[in-house]
Amino acid sequence: MFQRTARFASRCAKALFQTVLQGRAVWMAVIAAFMLSGCVQYEVGITFDSPTRGAIAQHIQLDERLASVGSGTAQAWLANIEQRARQVQGKTRRLSSKEVIVTIPFTTGRELEQKFNTFFDAKATVKTSRKVELPPIESHLKVEQGNFLLLERRKMIYDVDLRSLGVASPSGEVLVDSSPLIDLQVNLTTPWGAKNVVRPGSVASRRDGKQLIWMLQPGQKNHLEAAFWMPSPLGLGTVAIVAIVAAGIYLKNQQPGVGEPAAKPAAASRP
After folding, report:
1. In contact, 36 and 73? CB cutoff 8 Å
2. How would you list the strands of the sheet with 53-62, edge to edge?
């Protein structure tokens, strides 16, 4: 999943050089826009293992230059993420000083909504040893569910406003695109795969097996929507109970003499 590091680093270096050429004022604006002076790989994955079990996985990898130049801010930001994860019963794993993986389990669509929106709430505050000023990023995840006896149909809708990660003119036109500097990816993995629902303004997706992948666009509003099917535990359980009861009735009726009236004793013969 994360084997694009060399190609991405080369793209980052080229983008940084081109951005510097646009002028010092613009370069400083880009730094202020997303607080960091290097490239960031930011990947969020949502996995449904079954209708009652899944996890949110977040992988963050900072560029080597960022880890050395802005080490104080970078480490404070990663510490902030770790504390947010603990608030929603998640776990974190530090792979290095510039790389962290967050895993947040969930059991239902409603719990996924609650934990996801709490973890990514731009207005939420956590106590850290150093205050980190993050750009305002509004996002909201919604999960809709419908039951059809043996199957469940779910729809995931995600809207995220990344306009704060770009430099725009007063008219709203993006002057500096930060997409070469920050790699934002959202993945959805389900047992039977998912279908991308295309709406006006939707982000394009690509498929990798049972996984849908969206590349978010910094400096823009992003809309993601996908529909997928999963087996219904309630429906399958009901069918199993009905099958067991029917089999029991059938076997009972197959036993000889069951359900027939008892035979009357033969009358004693007279001499």
Report:
1. yes
2. 91-96, 99-106, 53-62, 40-50, 182-189, 211-215, 205-208
Contact 167, 26 (CB under 8 A): yes
Condensed to tens digits (0 to 9), the pLDDT of residues 154-164 reads 999 999 998 87
Distance in angstroms (rounded) separating the CA atoms of residues 47 and 150: 21
Pairing of strands 40-50, 182-189: parallel
Q: Using alpha carbons, select from 146, 157, 155, 109 the residue that is nearest to residue 232.
A: 146
In this structure, are residues 27 and 167 in contact, taking their beta carbons and an 8 Å threshold? no
The pLDDT tens digits for 173-190 are 444 444 456 778 999 999
Cα three-residue angle 18-164-179, rounded to 5 degrees: 35
Q: Where are the domains of the chain?
A: 5-235
Measured in whole angstroms, the distance separating CA 254 from the mean position of its chain's CA atoms is 53
- Dihedral sign for Cα 113, 114, 119, 123, please: positive
Beta-ladder partners of 213 = 187, 206
State how far Cα 114 lies from the chain centre: 12
Q: What is the C-alpha to C-alpha distance for residues 1 and 189, in angstroms, rounded to an integer?
A: 13
Tens digit of each residue's pLDDT (9 = 90 or more) over 107-149: 999 999 999 999 998 666 555 545 555 667 889 999 999 888 7
- What is the chain's Cα-based Rg? 28
CA angle 183, 87, 56 (to 5 degrees): 45
CB atoms within 10 A of CB 195: 15
Token pair 């794993």 in the structure block, residue: 93
